[in-house]
Amino acid sequence: MDMGLQDKVVVITGGSEGIGFAAARAFIAEGAYTAICGRRKNALAHAVAELGPQAFGVSCDMTKEDDVHDFARRVFDTFGRIDVWVNNVGATIARKGTWYTGEEIDRTYAVNFKSVVMGSQAAVPYLSRQGGVIVNVASLAARCATSGRATLYGAFKAGVVNFTNTFAGEVASKHIRVVSILPGFTLTPLVRATIAPADLEKQSRTCLLRRAASTEEIAGPIVFLASSQASYMTAASLEISGGRSVTLNPGYSYGE
């Protein structure tokens, strides 16, 4: 199946590890040139080296407006076009809603929502030259509450989903599609390093497929949504959760 991504230029924010890195590798496998950014220069350099000659890296803080626009400009100056922009930056602080400090509220907002808005704003002038796609990486937490664990993360990711739909209506005449994905529990390097095996097992038992997703299983749908195979999809969200949100008794098929 031809995804129509050969020689396209793809931008992925926060692409030095996790879902972003897996997506970068998947786009490159389809023949695209891929630009990634990150705040940690060593991790960024390592990722670019591993991805190979079709990768381009820029040190960038996606919560700072000047950095965001400079990143977009440098990608365009290097490749002469931008076809796909993936807003992938995100982070959570494990807090109940009553425990967040003002600084933590601001930081969670900036990373999970503000970065998406500013990334989309920076992308539009370049995408509108020939048409393109914005893919926003939200979370299943946008749809299903995570009470007591990461209250604001889900709230701001829900904002990403709403922004996706609203922004799609604003840029449709520029031939820009805007879509989002809602990943469920995913085995990123950070998850592997910070969550105990017993907790991983507990999380896995809450979905129909009884396991967490690999980063590659999230990257594949990102590539699909950005491709010509999804050319009639906009203002849409795709859940990739192993069926976690759809049933109250996920153990039924397993005799529980």
TrEMBL record:
GO molecular function: oxidoreductase activity, acting on the CH-OH group of donors, NAD or NADP as acceptor; quinone binding
UniProt GO BP: bile acid metabolic process; fatty acid biosynthetic process
SUPFAM superfamilies: NAD(P)-binding Rossmann-fold domains (SSF51735)
Keyword GTP-binding: no
Alphabetic keyword roster: Oxidoreductase
Source organism superkingdom: Bacteria
InterPro entries per UniProt: NAD(P)-bd_dom_sf, SDR_fam
Keyword Cytoplasm in record: no
Entry's family note: Belongs to the short-chain dehydrogenases/reductases (SDR) family.
Name by which UniProt lists this protein: SDR family oxidoreductase
Organism in which the protein naturally occurs: Megasphaera hexanoica
